[in-house]
Specification:
Layout lengths: L3 H4 L2 H18 L6 H8 L10 H26 L4 H26 L4 H24 L2
Length: 137
């Protein structure tokens, strides 16, 4: 356990964070889910909320932390193939994203579509990043 940091691939973590960041930009763009998401949260298309730059920087830092943590799960599980990496990503999504975000969206009175948009992003992201981290050692 004390030698796990030697097994971490810092380049894979950085690339994973960049992947998540760009996937988020695409996911919440007008090409994919911006319109329904904006409608649900009560904004207008094209509206620039305050703190966009801070949000983007914060997103990237969060993506780095997520990739770092997921890399630990990948190493601990012994996943070394695309499939097993994706399985670990799915389990992380199921337990740490879907399980907590679904009831939260219910308590907030949000439509199920809101849960699907936000957590669909994390599902796709964690499947891909899990696969990447498993094979890029």
């Amino acid at each position: 356990m004390q030698h796990i940091h030697h097994a971490l691939n810092h380049w894979a973590i950085l690339v994973s964070a960049l992947f998540l960041w760009f996937l988020g930009a695409l996911w919440y763009s007008s090409l994919l889910f911006a319109r329904p998401w904006v409608e649900i949260v009560g904004r207008k298309m094209g509206e620039q909320p305050k703190g966009v730059a801070k949000g983007m920087i914060g997103s990237f830092i969060g993506d780095l932390l997520l990739a770092f943590a997921l890399n630990h799960f990948i190493i601990w599980s012994g996943a070394s193939t695309i499939g097993w990496g994706a399985v670990v990503g799915f389990i992380v999504w199921l337990g740490f994203f879907a399980a907590v975000n679904y009831p939260q969206s219910v308590y907030e009175g949000r439509p199920f579509k809101y849960f699907l948009i936000n957590n669909g992003y994390w599902l796709i992201g964690l499947l891909c990043v899990g696969a990447l981290l498993a094979v890029w050692r």
